[in-house]
Design goal:
Number of strands: 9
Shape: globular
Largest sheet: 7 strands, parallel
Strand content: 5-15%
Oligomer: single chain
Radius of gyration: 18 Å
Mean pLDDT: 95
Length: 290
C-alpha cells in the first residue's frame, strides 16, 4: 500500500549485522533526492556527513551537493552503498570524498578531519553533520552487555565529541554543526534503552555546545527523526517488527530519508541564522514537548 507515493508497510525482512546494507532492502529507501531542486544555499561550502553511505546520511549528502557543497562521507564498511552516494554527489556536480572506518575510534576521527581539510584544499570545514549511529534492541536491561553498552555509546555520542573536537580549529564564524538525535530522546524506548540514552545525551550535547560556541559564531542544532526507513531497521529488528515499522505514527507510515534531509539543509544554511541549540522534528506527526 502507498500513501503520497510512500509505502505504508514493508515486506518482512532481516539482515544479519549492523549497520546494514541498502542494496539488500526491499523496497530500497528513498534517499536519492530525485525530486529535490537546489537553489545555491550551500554554494562552495565544505561538508562532512557521518553515516553518509545510505539512508538519512545519503539523502543529506546529496541534498547538500545539490545546494552547491562538496561533501565528505564517513562510513563504517558499506563500500558499495558509499560508492553509490559518491556517484550521486558527483552527478550533482560536486566533489565527494569517501572515508571508511570506525568513528568510535578517536584517532580515526582525527584522521577524518585531517583528510577533509587537506583533500578539499581549503583548510576549512563549514558544515559537520554528526549522523552515524547504531542500535541493538534488547527487551531487558539485564541483556545489555558491557560490550554492547560501550559500543553504542562510542558510536552514537563519543564520536560526536571526538569529531567536533578535531573539527573546531577549522570551523570559522558561520559554520554549522548538526547532530542527529531521535524521537526516543524525548519519549524513551523500552527495547532500545542504551540507544535512547545516547540520543538523550546528544540532545544535551547539542544544547550545551551551542552555548559554548555561540561567541565564536558557530551554530549547533539537531534533528530528531521518528521512524525512518533506513538500513539500520532491517539490520537491527526482527522481520515481523519490520513489517509493522512506522504504522503507529500519526501519518500511518514510516518516513523516508528524502523527507528528513531538508531539515538538515535548512539548519546548514543562512535561513537558520537565528537558530542555535534547537531541534527539528520530522517524525510523522508525534507531538514533542520540550
Amino acid at each position: 500500500m502507498m500513501q503520497d507515493d510512500k509505502p505504508t508497510s514493508f515486506p518482512p525482512q532481516h539482515q544479519r549485522g549492523e549497520p546494514g546494507r541498502e542494496t539488500l532492502m526491499h523496497p530500497p529507501p528513498q534517499d536519492r533526492m530525485e525530486k529535490y531542486r537546489g537553489s545555491g544555499k550551500l554554494e562552495d561550502k565544505i561538508a562532512l556527513v557521518t553515516g553518509g553511505d545510505s539512508g538519512i546520511g545519503r539523502a543529506v549528502a546529496v541534498a547538500f551537493a545539490k545546494e552547491g557543497a562538496d561533501v565528505a562521507v564517513a562510513f563504517f564498511n558499506e563500500h558499495e552503498d558509499a560508492e553509490e552516494t559518491r556517484r550521486l554527489v558527483e552527478g550533482a556536480g560536486r566533489r565527494c570524498l569517501l572515508l571508511a572506518g570506525d568513528i568510535g575510534d578517536p584517532e580515526f576521527c582525527r584522521q577524518i578531519i585531517h583528510a577533509v581539510v587537506s583533500d578539499f584544499g581549503h583548510g576549512r570545514l563549514d558544515i559537520l553533520v554528526n549522523n552515524a549511529a547504531e542500535q541493538h534492541p534488547q527487551e531487558s536491561l539485564e541483556k545489555i552487555t558491557d560490550i554492547q553498552l560501550e559500543r553504542t555509546f562510542r558510536t552514537n555520542i563519543f564520536s560526536m565529541f571526538y569529531l567536533t573536537r578535531a573539527a573546531l580549529p577549522h570551523l570559522k564564524p558561520g559554520a554549522r554543526i548538526i547532530n542527529t538525535t531521535s524521537v526516543t530522546a524525548y519519549r524513551g524506548s523500552s527495547h532500545l534503552l542504551d540507544y535512547a540514552a545516547t540520543k538523550g545525551a546528544i540532545l544535551a550535547f547539542t544544547r550545551s555546545l551551542s552555548q559554548q560556541l555561540a561567541g565564536r559564531g558557530i551554530h549547533v542544532n539537531a534533528v530528531a527523526p521518528g521512524p525512518i526507513w533506513t538500513p539500520l531497521i532491517p539490520a537491527s529488528f526482527p522481520a515481523e517488527h519490520v513489517a509493522e515499522f512506522g504504522k503507529n505514527t500519526t501519518l500511518g507510515r514510516a518516513g523516508q530519508p528524502d523527507e528528513v534531509a531538508p531539515s538538515y539543509v535548512f539548519l546548514a544554511s543562512d535561513d537558520a541564522s537565528y537558530m542555535t541549540g534547537q531541534t527539528l522534528h520530522p517524525n510523522g506527526g508525534e507531538v514533542v514537548n520540550t
